[in-house]
Write a structure and sequence with these properties.
Blueprint: H1 12-29, E1 43-48, H2 54-65, E2 69-74, H3 86-96, E3 100-105, H4 110-117, E4 123-129, H5 135-150, E5 163-167, H6 174-185, E6 189-193, E7 209-211, H7 214-219, E8 224-227, H8 243-250, H9 254-258, E9 265-267, H10 280-283, H11 290-309, H12 315-318, H13 321-343
Parallel strand pairs: 1-2, 1-3, 3-4, 5-6, 5-8, 6-7, 8-9
Helix pairs in contact: 1-5, 1-11, 1-13, 2-11, 5-6, 5-11
The protein binds phosphoric acid mono(formamide)ester (CP).
Phosphoric acid mono(formamide)ester (CP) binds at residues 52-55, 128, 134, 137, 269-271.
Length: 344
Amino acid sequence: MRHLLSTRDLTRDEAVAIMDVAEDMADVADREVRKLPALRNKTVVNLFFEDSTRTRISFEAAAKRLSADVINFSAKGSSVSKGESLKDTAQTLAAIGADAVVIRHGSSGAPRVLAGSGWIDAAVINAGDGTHEHPTQALLDAFTIRRRLHGGAARGRDLDGVRVVIVGDILHSRVARSNVWLLTTLGATVELVAPATLLPIGIENWPVTVSYDLDTTLAGGPDVVMMLRIQSERMHAAFFPTAREYSREWGLTDERFSGLRADSMVMHPGPMNRGLEISARAADSAQSTVLDQVANGVSIRMAVLYLALSGEQDTAATGTAHAHAASARTAAAQSEPSAHTEGR
Ligand code: CP
């Protein structure tokens, strides 16, 4: 894997292989010394043109656990605020010697432009572009679902037959788009629930069913209920009358949460608007995977950086996706003595 720009580009086998490598990375997190030497002498740049808490710090933690050097770049406080272009910024990073660029950008397609530009010879990882995609978020969501369902026997599995309901601001959500492509590739069925004003044009061409009625959909007993953040910062018009009405019609209120199956997962990518799209009781419940999603994000981002930078052959070209998982497992096992030495 050279770049990760979209979950739409991933086959089932590639997605399963990334999650299997992430299982190996999660095993490393349980060890006394949580560092692998796999990306020593590599430089990872976190290039964030939009705000982030979870994605930026988990990419930083992931790169550091793989022994890469990490440079954090935020557009605020940089020469971008003086008008510097993406091209000049990329060429500056190339001159510094970046091996991977993790980019979050307000414009849909910016990571693909960077990857195809020739401005920089680095792996490009999309950390969220406009309303387009957020592939590592979808991978960590799928990984979280797989782990909750299958625990220690998750390796090699897809999400065949899992029923996922995604609720809320689909229109502005790159998380929803990446999840729709990935979860359906992995065999899950996806149902979207939203007010008509928060559904994008062309939704009829997505591999999903659509409903406007949350109570009817939840009565079907989904395995997973994924609540989306209302993205007020991207709303330049009134998409629903009031926050109270939105919560009443499309929020996971205490009452709706009480009606869920006891083993239904409650997911949210964060940051959450508590009391708007999700109640505090639902968010803090044992059914909630919100903090698992954050922890699993480090394992998934370790896997993605490892696969992009470890010099392995392209999985799609060679058909050896599972060889990557085995290779990462070997690297993790072999590193244990030296990692302990480093820790002293
Ligand atoms: N889920 C997510 O992308 O969160 P951040 O915006 O905090 O990175």
